[in-house]
Amino acid sequence: xxxxxxxxxxxxxxxxxxxxxxxxxxxxxxxxxxxxxxxxxxxxxxxxxxxxxxxxxxxxxxxxxxxxxxxxxxxxxxxxxxxxxxxxxxxxxxxxxxxxxxxxxxxx
Amino acid sequence: xxxxxxxxxxxxxxxxxxxxxxxxxxxxxxxxxxxxxxxxxxxxxxxxxxxxxxxxxxxxxxxxxxxxxxxxxxxxxxxxxxxxxxxxxxxxxxxxxxxxxxxxxxxx
Amino acid sequence: xxxxxxxxxxxxxxxxxxxxxxxxxxxxxxxxxxxxxxxxxxxxxxxxxxxxxxxxxxxxxxxxxxxxxxxxxxxxxxxxxxxxxxxxxxxxxxxxxxxxxxxxxxxx
Lengths: 108, 108, 108
Ligand code: NI
Ligand code: NI
Ligand code: NI
Known about the structure:
3 copies of one chain form a homotrimer.
Chain A: E1 2-9, H1 10-22, E2 28-30, E3 41-48, H2 53-64, E4 67-71, H3 75-81, E5 88-92, E6 95-101, E7 104-107
Antiparallel strand pairs in A: 1-3, 1-6, 2-3, 4-5
The structure holds nickel (II) ion (3 copies).
């Protein structure tokens, strides 16, 4: 048994959790204190059998990895200024994941 | 030294924590993000000496294990409808507990 | 790779986190549920290379260790009562720190 501790962006939490659940992984979501750090981190805990670690890690990676998105300002804004605004690149997502060995696992 | 990470129901947290404290275990209660998951999970962290793990696990089990309760609707409701409402079974409690080895433990 | 789990006082969190960050340690701050426990605990998670554990532990100790402070009531209060109030000793700070081995560490 392993415990996966995944620190992901808030905006990715819904997708990561629902996809882990679909694959029968139970997830606990810890609240992260706002204000001090990069806003919007979420810490997930999920206990997995040794031979399921790679599957769970794959689901976390797929739904949270760092990626580039193109954002555009509202077209009304560009229209107001009389030109089209070019989309801007923004980096979103990203995860830090720890896998820890579990000596004893119990469900009561 | 071991670290016990226990995910329990909110409604059991008071009893679990006060009974752990009475047995001289210090407990930290982490807030769980609302909304996404089964409402009302709490994550407890407690560091215990190797030979105290079973004692702490017993206290957690005793005060959080999954159990059936009978709930009745308010009798005024039954009276209004002119019959007695049968009690309904509800499942409450339940815990998921991980024990992890601690390599170094310090108090400053 | 090790995972440091540090339970510190809220009032020390700012200093501990900013000094860990200055030394290039990334920190996640978990919210602690209010009401039940000593008010104002914060749990920090930080993943560190094996040979950086002592450095990180030193920063945590330096910025959170239990210490005595002298507090005085507002002088207006003493003045009102016609005497000088002696400063009182208060204990602040204090940390409980666990170091756990990490089997797998990934950044996505
Ligand atoms: Ni504009
Ligand atoms: Ni009714
Ligand atoms: Ni006074």
